[in-house]
Inverse folding.
């Protein structure tokens, strides 16, 4: 029984948000907030009324238990494996005057989310969803890469559509070749793929957004989105392509804007029973326009989740 619209698989982390703009060493206090791209997408989806589940690995520690509690409070069906051998991931966020962010983590490469394994890609859980959404940051280790491939294969076998946002964090990888290979394996099986303009060369071999979108479709992606920051997003489905401008907003913090985009896109596309990529192109463009609005709203608040809207706060 498909009693979930979207199941998100990957990292749940703690973002430590600063009390002021500028260098981290000049900040006096930090606020612990939920983070991690797939977890942020799950929160955004749940707030938009989408039946959402989340699976991942966190440390068996106070931060891990905080994440379990906070995600469940959003209405997400949470399945977190608590690992004793590694701590929950922590990322300190620094903001510049324009709201652009940089990150520092004392444990990024050794946090519990990197322990996701094929057993965490439970086919019974995946089969309950219409869509599986995932990324790459929790899949740096060989077991993690096997888990992602197993999850995507289970989705294909069970008729579950795949949504993929690589959310590339190059500093997590000693060698980018396994990341490229992972994307080459996953992208051809995706109903929806979202890449930022900064990621397209690594993941597709094309630096131009239009050529990258065309390449994604040629690889087998149903709906290919390339986000362009304040310029909006480029979307392609088959031979149809459109640039969807973003509405201007007063940017406070760009953290989580891409996750908000994905949540808005999937929320709009998942309305009704039709497969995601079976929507008319006009519906796809409308979904991207809504996704841009959600991403823009995220940028008006500090942190990845504070600005994620609830149902009815933004029109489709």
């Amino acid at each position: 029984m498909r009693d979930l619209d979207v199941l998100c698989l990957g990292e749940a982390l703690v973002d430590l948000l600063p009390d002021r703009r500028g260098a981290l060493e000049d900040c006096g206090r930090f606020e612990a907030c939920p983070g991690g791209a797939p977890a942020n997408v799950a929160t955004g989806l749940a707030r938009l009324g989408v039946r959402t589940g989340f699976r991942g690995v966190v440390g068996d520690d106070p931060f891990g238990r905080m994440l379990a509690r906070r995600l469940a409070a959003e209405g997400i069906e949470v399945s977190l494996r608590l690992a004793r051998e590694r701590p929950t991931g922590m990322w300190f966020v620094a903001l510049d005057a324009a709201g652009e962010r940089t990150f520092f983590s004392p444990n990024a490469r050794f946090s519990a989310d990197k322990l996701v394994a094929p057993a965490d890609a439970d086919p019974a859980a995946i089969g309950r969803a219409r869509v599986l959404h995932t990324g790459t940051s929790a899949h740096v280790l060989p077991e993690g890469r096997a888990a992602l491939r197993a999850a995507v294969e289970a989705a294909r076998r069970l008729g579950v559509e795949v949504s993929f946002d690589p959310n590339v964090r190059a500093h997590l990888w000693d060698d980018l070749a396994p990341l490229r290979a992972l994307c080459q394996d996953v992208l051809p099986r995706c109903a929806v793929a979202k890449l930022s303009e900064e990621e397209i060369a690594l993941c597709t071999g094309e630096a131009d957004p239009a050529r990258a979108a065309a390449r994604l479709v040629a690889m087998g992606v149903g709906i290919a989105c390339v986000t362009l920051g304040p310029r909006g997003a480029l979307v392609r489905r088959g031979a149809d392509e459109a640039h969807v401008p973003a509405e201007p907003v007063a940017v406070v913090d760009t953290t989580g804007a891409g996750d908000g985009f994905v949540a808005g896109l999937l929320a709009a596309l998942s309305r009704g029973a039709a497969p995601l990529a079976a929507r008319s192109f006009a519906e796809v463009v409308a979904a991207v326009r809504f996704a841009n609005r959600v991403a823009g709203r995220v940028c008006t608040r500090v942190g990845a989740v504070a600005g994620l809207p609830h149902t009815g706060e933004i029109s489709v």
About this structure: The two ends are 28 Å apart (CA to CA). The first strand starts at residue 4 and ends at 9.
